[in-house]
Amino acid sequence: MALHHAQSGEVVNLLAHPQTPALHSQAIVSTPELEVMRLCLPAGKQVPPHAVAGAITLQCLQGSIEVQAHDGWHPMQVNDHLYLAGNVEHAISGLTDAVVLVNIQRRTDTKTSQTSPD
Asked: Model's pTM, two decimal places?
């Protein structure tokens, strides 16, 4: 069964879903330009170091996490927001059970057409 991704104009509740008693990590929006996901990270769980080509933002919606980037660990709690430029290696660790909104700007190979002057 394919996962449902939000369509343009669709309102999505990030912290509750009537059919799901427990929250799970899920891609909310997935387009060629943008990926938005809800990351559910239990206390003590870690997302290993990795990097993505495009810019990324993280917003802590519930609980608390730490993000390792730029040679240090950055604690985040509810309502904290973090921006990372493209290709920045980072890891995420759950300090408590946490829900994080992750936005990734996907890099696309868009070639602009060059016209020569007449």
From this structure: 0.81
